Amino acid sequence: MKIRLSIFTLMALSSLSAQEVILDSISVTATKISTKTKDISQSIAVVDEKTIEDKNVLNIQDAIGDIPGVIAESSTNSPSPRLIIRGAGLKARYGVREIMIMKDGVPMTDPDSFTRFDFIDMQDVSSVEVQKGPGSINAVNATGGVIQLVTKSVFKDDKNRIKVGAGNDNQRNVNLKLRGALSKDDFVAFTFSKRTIDNSWRDHNKFDSTQATLKYGHMFEDDSTFETEFSYTESNMELPASMTASEFETFKNTGSQHNTSDQWQNSGRDSKIFSINAKYEKEVGSTTFKPRVYFNTWEHFHPVTGMINDSNDNSVYGTDLELNNLHKLFGQKATFVAGVTLKADITNGAKKYKYADYETKVATSWPFAPYISKTLSDNKGALAQTEDSKTILYGGYLMETFSPSNDFIIDVSTRVDELSFDISGNEVTAYSYSLKNYTAGKGLYNVDKSYTLFSAKLGAVYKITDTTNMYASVATANQAPTTSELGENEQLNMATSVNYEIGLKTRAKNISADIAIYQNDVDDEIIQIKDANGNSIYDNAGKTQKRGLEVTAVYKPIESVQLGANYAFSEFKFIKFSENVGSSSVSRDGNYLPYIPKNQYSLFATYNMKNGFKSRVTTKTWGKYYMDNANTQEYDGYQFVTDIMLGYEKDAHNIQLNINNITNQYYAMEALKDVYGNESYKAAAPINGMLTYIYKF
């Protein structure tokens, strides 16, 4: 399939130069320096503060789920999204992988590319940036791209606020933000959030979290700044079971999911996380120094398939030492960015336990052995495994951005990182997917593995008119396996991603539009498969190719009205890949990757009246996608799932009603099929709403 961009479309967008230019969205991610998104040589989306407030964003998927090329879905109304950017992240069983998450320039992602969203308070976030594709100097061991969360600055003179919300399924939300000046140079801010939801339409689906953040900032006489942040989160999340095909039909008829037959009825993740970071920024002549240090420690109780993970001694240490230099090249302004990174992720005494309480049945076929049919609780049984691990990452990066003429912007960047794993443990008991029961483990084991990760990008922007830019880029990056993946397959190779992209960006008085076309070739992509014994493992696919078209457009016919549309076409294929089915290896060459819909689009409209009344309507549609690597079955997706907001703002008061899935559609957030023909479905949430009141003082 060849993607063709009509020359008439390009001419139509270029003709917008006759209109008055508006202020472009600003990115602080892509180039490490505040830059208009129009001047960046790759696809980047910015979700602003008003959108976040109007959508009542409580989880990351609420903020970015409508961005083309991004899949951000959750079946639990909690911070446990399935997060994929242009196919990267598809392999993750849980959590987020292959995507770099940053908060105010501080990495939230572990060295092996794993991110937990449960310790990020989205109610303290003022904007979100999504940079798609490999090659970013921010993206350490992450080929999918970068998500930057920009929080409310301690230096910004802002009003205090109290926010309370209540909704169906016993939803409750309280958020408090206080900010003040201790002196003319010292500032402090405090944020507290408490959330609960029962999700009673489904068994084992409750969620609650308590979060507190304290920020301190100091401005020196030479205008240099120092910031530090302390945060604590306690999160308790139940993860509901999947459904069989017949159970999914029942859900579609009733909107309820109870008494399912899945083995693992008691999965969940209870976490406690403490984090601290400090940042300093100082200008010396034309050079700005930006050193950062950060630390977090966490513990979790995490029942999953077969085992109960209990780990309470986990620490991540890191520093990023960066400098930016403004200079001239070819008689034009240029920017040079350089930095070094050091991160360590250390886990001591992580434990896995058997489930203590479960039912068994006897198999009706060979070997006629008992198997676990259903867990009855998440109580810990006998100790099954202990493990210590140490993951170290260090490296450096360089980037030069310059203009050889008034109409061109060129950026060249590279970074090189060394990633090493040291994993040791004792597996006394293992869970066998083929027997569906516990078996003897492999005993003592040790994994000592290192990868040299390289990424680079060459991009160019050409200014067609005052309002319209065209860009082209080529970028490459490596993706190493995670700690857990190496624990299952020590022979995994790192993946290599090469991305080619061209696009067009227009920013005018009444319209903003982005078009991007890309091709991403990946060698040795790490994917999840089933082995000959039925065990779920990770392996390298020989080669995959991902082609896509993404379009975003926003139009303001009058000052109070905004209309928008997003569209993504995705054609992701295995070029070379063989999958084990029983004892045979079956070629999947030419097949489509599962779960990624070919067509995905959303529409929105906002209306903000001068008297304070406001409204927003968003609707999204997913096309069909294949449920398995063999492409034997498609899921139909969903059509026009619609969210609305109605609100009123007056002086210090803001009251709004947000209703998600207002037509109460019953559909699957995820539909999969294994190599043995077994279907599984995860339900998306039915209609849910929250009434919120905000008072600013």
UniProtKB/TrEMBL annotation:
Task: Name the major location.
Answer: membrane
Signal peptide residue numbers: 1-20
Q: What GO CC terms are in its UniProt record?
A: cell outer membrane
Write down the superkingdom of origin. Bacteria
Please verify whether the record's keywords include Signal: yes
A Gene Ontology molecular function term for this protein is: siderophore uptake transmembrane transporter activity
Q: Where in the cell is it found?
A: Cell outer membrane
Pfam families cross-referenced by the UniProt entry: Plug, TonB_dep_Rec_b-barrel
Q: Which PANTHER family match?
A: FERRICHROME IRON RECEPTOR-RELATED, FERRICHROME OUTER MEMBRANE TRANSPORTER_PHAGE RECEPTOR
What name has this protein been given in UniProt? TonB-dependent receptor protein
Organism annotation: Sulfurimonas gotlandica (strain DSM 19862 / JCM 16533 / GD1)
Query: Taxonomic classification, please?
Result: Bacteria, Pseudomonadati, Campylobacterota, Epsilonproteobacteria, Campylobacterales
